[in-house]
Design a protein that fits this description.
Layout lengths: L5 E3 L11 H9 L31 H18 L2 E3 L12 E5 L9 H17 L4 E5 L12 H9 L14 H11 L3 E5 L3 E2 L3 H12 L3 E5 L7 E8 L4 E7 L6 E7 L5 E8 L6 E6 L3 H4 L4 E4 L8 E3 L7 E7 L13 H8 L3 E5 L5 H10 L4 E5 L6 H12 L3 E5 L2 H5 L9 E7 L10 E6 L15 E2 L1 E5 L5 H4 E5 L4 E8 L2 E6 L14 H13 L18 E2 L1 E5 L5 E2 L8 E2 L13 E4 L4 E4 L9 E2 L8 E3 L7 E2 L1 H22 L2 H8 L1 H15 L5 H14 L4 E3 L4 H21 L8 E3 L11 E5 L9 H12 L3 E5 L17 H10 L7 E3 L26 E3 L6 H6 L11 E4 L3 H5 L18 H18 L2 H6 L1 H8 L2
Parallel strand pairs: 3-4, 3-5, 5-7, 7-33, 15-16, 15-17, 17-18, 18-25, 35-36, 35-37, 37-38, 38-41
Antiparallel strand pairs: 1-2, 2-34, 6-32, 8-9, 9-12, 10-11, 10-13, 13-14, 19-22, 20-21, 20-23, 23-24, 24-25, 26-29, 27-28, 27-30, 30-31, 39-40
Helix pairs in contact: 1-2, 2-14, 3-4, 5-6, 9-10
Length: 933
């Protein structure tokens, strides 16, 4: 049926629907009107109201109900089938199945295999031979095989991770069709044109001649792909492509080399858009860790974008030897360098301090690339450190200038003549030179040689046997413009002109940007040593490490994969499938599509073919549903007729009371009863709607009221002094309430109180192990007898010992002066409450040496202490009356004791909310000192 996955086993029976108007007319026919005979005595009956009335004709809605029931019976008799198998017409000719098996077929591969299996099953029932033609293998022989063998061969096919050129299969297919003669052809298309699609359709139309062709397309989601990932200055972007409308948007996931997620970015297509963009607004450090971008829910190699170190936004240090950089920045030698490098790198200008000091700082920061613009003589210490840094993989880029021309520096790729060479001027016959060529085996190979660049001055290299192998760019007279060589795992390169406009106009050209981009791409993964690029054969090719399959999953390289050039930047092919090449430490990524590739829907309108769609569900016979619906309508008709005839009404009147009682009983039985779940939901909503402090309800009304007032006072103080606006405190019962909603639980100890049940103890233990903090307050510091162990002998402390006996409590210690709890918000020495003589205990931290402790002004463990114990009655000091006045007096009542009690509460709350991050903050001066900054 057009537009719907519906067919009929006996479509001729649908002609019965034509009889429905006749049935309508028969149902609406009225009986003959009765004759009227005058009978005078009948006047006695005029005042009697009739109890039953019979309509003169059938109501229109009842007639419509009967017609609908009749139509359902006719449709059921025709044998409707939902999602029928869309095979080809029955025939005795051989069956040829053309199978799209490129990356664009992977997302709907299961539907494609299912359709092919159904075609093979039909061919088996007709005893026909089957030929399978995967369009990714043009050299494969096409032969007819029994259906059983074809089914086995079909299961061995898998989508390829690269684009398929269908045109290359036409020659083999033409020879087979010419030898076979008449046959039926089924093309299981993916509907995507990755190039030369119209050419294949035209060639296929010429080959099939009068043969039957069925094209399977539609019914499966359109393919999507990722291309052109770019790590820009503020964010990473990637283009998302789709072949056809239907998919409105999705999510692109970013993962690192270990498969751990880094971020997600949502994208949306416009109504007619074929491409859109997804962007990751992440810090540059996180963006540099991204090794793979993939479309969530899309299983294909085209939906994966692999990233290597070429996509990393490197931090590059730029050092200038000129003295006017700060005073006149527009004339500085770093002005053009910064603007040329900024699109693909983060620039760190060393414009403060001497060049030797700046270079040392950059080396301490382990930057992958350093640019020296006219930096002359280097000290032996700096030269030694630079050599070691280059040996480990650093890239040193130098630019000539007056200082370098007069220096004796061996940290250059070639030996230089002292002094510069001036071209053009009143004192020389030589004319300014233009750029001539780029070395075919250098990093600039493939760039267009500009003809408008003029060089007025340069530093010359001493001619030697290896100068030609180190020349990456040359002038018209053969002298080198750029030289370079590999040194250990790194690279040294020299521009024989300055980085500003005084020696040449190269810094103003677009070629300058591309040359710097190529050099930046080398930083961080140049790993093959050698005297020069041309003389290093191992750096020319890299072997496959891991490759993607058609579904976008990593696996071992296939036997057909070949080594590729180290500067390969094209799309994946059968020889170089998408994946990672080179060493595991510095792999090179090859993707399914190149940055400029785009996809489009495949146009098959020019082919004379029958079109079918893929089905992902099994066929379903609708006859049972239609007959059941017709029966229900007939039952409704019978009930309506009974009601109009008053038979049902009389029955209901006789059975009214029992029916009402039965209905009431049923409603009472199924009515939901109130449960504790509803109250639990209300408690959870209240606890999570705002950050709230919690306290354990002890059952002592006086203690509970003071604690609630104290936490309310602390909440108000937090709102006045910090950015935290917490909600009202919540009283909890550890045995019944959920504790995970609260970062801090205040537990006042009441001497002699019964020990909580074991279930409550277990919940407290789990809460503390999952990151929560319990503040136990015995509130009896003034009751401690004299002596070193007096605080442990109070009634409150004895009750606390019994409570903690079954808890897994870590080792405790008094809060040391360097503990992060003393510095989370306020700088505190102790934690007073109503009393200031008690000690505050926290989880003991690992011990440090005295020298090391002296350098660390704060210490913090790996997490927050799960337990804090005090006896200073903190809540009593925080408690305030509704008029804002303190509720309880202080002992000994020092002037600022209550203020410091509130500050202690702020530190405790901030400690439980933010953890030990403050420990790292107070270490910042020591860390900076160690880094030499």
């Amino acid at each position: 049926m057009a537009g719907l996955p519906l067919s009929f086993a006996e479509p001729m029976l649908l002609l019965g629907l034509v009889s429905l108007p006749v049935l309508w007319w028969l149902l609406r026919v009225m009986p003959p009107r009765p004759r009227r005979v005058e009978f005078p005595p009948t006047r006695l009956l005029f005042e009697i109201a009739p109890k039953e009335e019979t309509p003169s004709r059938t109501p229109w809605w009842l007639t419509l109900l009967r017609l609908l029931a009749a139509a359902l019976v006719i449709l059921a008799a025709a044998g409707p089938i939902w999602n029928p198998q869309t095979g080809i017409a029955a025939s005795k000719s051989p069956l040829v199945i053309l199978l799209d098996d490129g990356w664009s077929a992977a997302a709907s591969w299961d539907a494609r295999i299912k359709a092919a299996d159904e075609l093979i099953t039909d061919a088996d029932s007709d005893r026909r031979g089957v030929a399978l033609v995967p369009l990714s293998e043009p050299a494969r022989d096409i032969t007819l095989m029994p259906a059983g063998a074809a089914r086995v061969a079909l299961r061995q096919f898998a989508p390829k991770p690269y684009s398929v050129d269908r045109v290359e299969t036409l020659a083999t297919l033409g020879r087979f069709l010419k030898a076979t003669g008449d046959c039926d052809i089924a093309w299981l298309s993916d509907g995507v044109d990755t190039g030369r699609g119209s050419e294949f359709a035209e060639g296929l139309g010429k080959l099939i001649e009068n043969r039957s062709l069925t094209i399977f397309e539609g019914g499966a989601p359109s393919a999507q792909a990722l291309v052109a990932a770019e790590n820009a200055a503020a964010k990473m972007t990637v283009k998302v492509l789709r072949a056809a409308n239907g998919i409105a948007g999705g999510i692109v996931r970013a993962v690192d080399a270990k498969g751990s997620p880094i971020g997600e970015a949502r994208y949306n297509f416009g109504p007619q858009e074929r491409e859109t963009e997804a962007s990751f607004d992440l810090p540059v450090e996180l963006r540099n860790d991204i090794a793979r971008l993939e479309i969530s829910g899309e299983r294909s190699a085209g939906a994966v974008q692999l990233l290597d170190k070429r996509w990393r936004r490197r931090a590059i240090g730029v050092v200038s030897g000129a003295s006017n950089d700060t005073a006149q920045p527009l004339l500085a030698s770093t002005f053009y360098l910064s603007r040329a490098l900024s699109p693909f790198a983060d620039i760190r200008l060393g414009d403060r301090g001497a060049p030797q000091q700046v270079i040392a700082q950059f080396l301490d920061q382990r930057l992958p690339m350093i640019v020296l613009a006219d930096v002359g003589t280097l000290s032996p210490e700096i030269r030694e450190r630079l050599n070691a840094w280059i040996e480990q993989g650093g890239v040193l880029l130098r630019f000539a200038g007056p200082r370098l021309a007069q220096a004796d520096d061996d940290l250059v790729p070639v030996k230089l003549r002292r002094g510069g060479r001036t071209l053009g001027g009143s004192l020389t016959w030589e004319k300014p030179q233009h750029m001539a060529s780029f070395a075919a085996d250098g990093p600039f190979a493939g760039l267009t040689v500009p003809k408008d660049i003029t060089v007025n001055r340069q530093v010359l290299a001493e001619p030697d046997a290896v100068l030609a192998t180190k020349s990456w760019a040359s002038l018209e007279d053969g002298t080198p413009l750029v030289t370079g060589e590999h040194h250990g795992k790194g690279v040294i390169s020299l521009f024989h002109v300055g980085a500003d406009m005084r020696w040449s106009d190269l810094p103003m050209s677009g070629t300058f940007v591309e040359m710097l981009r190529r050099l930046v791409d080398m930083s961080g993964y140049t790993s093959k040593p050698g005297p020069g690029v041309a003389s290093d054969p191992t750096a020319e090719t890299v072997a496959p490490l891991r490759t993607l399959d058609g579904f976008g999953a990593f696996g071992p390289p296939p036997s057909t994969a070949k080594p590729m050039p180290a500067d390969y930047r094209d799309r994946g092919t059968v020889d170089h499938p998408p994946g990672l090449y080179g060493s595991a430490e510095s792999p090179i990524a090859v993707n399914t599509l190149a940055s400029a590739d785009r996809i489009a829907p495949l146009d098959t309108s020019g082919l004379r073919a029958r079109h079918a769609s893929y089905t992902n569900t099994e066929p379903r016979d609708l006859r049972g549903i239609l007959l059941s619906s017709a029966l229900a309508l007939f039952l409704i008709d019978a009930i309506v007729v009974a009601m109009l005839g008053a038979g049902l009404a009389a029955l209901l009147r006789r059975r009214a009371a029992p029916a009402v009682l039965a209905l009431a009983f049923m409603l009472a039985a199924i009515a939901p009863s109130p449960t504790r779940a509803e109250s639990n939901d209300d408690f959870a909503i209240k606890a999570t709607s705002q950050t709230r402090l919690a306290y354990v309800v002890t059952g002592n009304a006086d203690v509970d009221s003071i604690v609630r007032a104290g936490l309310s006072g602390l909440t108000l103080f937090l709102a006045q002094r910090t950015a935290l606006e917490a909600g009202d405190p919540v009283g909890i019962d550890p045995a019944h309430d959920e504790l995970a909603f609260f970062p801090l639980i205040y537990w006042p100890i009441v001497p002699g109180a019964p020990k909580p049940p074991q279930d409550a103890i277990n919940k407290i233990d789990a809460y503390m192990k999952q990151g929560g903090t319990v503040l136990f307050d015995t509130r009896d510091a003034v009751e401690a007898p004299p002596g070193d162990n007096g605080a442990a002998q109070t009634p409150g402390m004895q009750t606390l010992r019994e409570l903690l006996a079954t808890l897994d409590v870590p080792e405790l210690e008094p809060v040391p002066r360097e503990h992060v709890l003393t510095k989370t918000f306020y700088l505190l020495r102790d934690f007073p409450g109503r009393f200031n003589t008690g000690q505050t205990w926290v989880e003991a931290l690992p011990r440090e040496d005295d020298d090391e402790a002296a350098q660390h002004p704060a210490r913090g463990g790996d997490g927050v202490s799960p337990i804090i114990i005090t006896s200073n009655d903190l809540a009593g000091a925080w408690a305030i009356r509704p008029d804002g006045q303190p509720m309880l007096p202080l002992t000994p009542g020092e002037p600022r004791q209550r203020e410091f009690a509130f500050r202690a509460g702020v530190n405790i709350v901030m400690y439980t909310l933010t953890g030990n991050y403050k420990a790292d903050q107070v270490h910042a001066p020591a860390l900076i000192e160690r880094l030499g900054q």
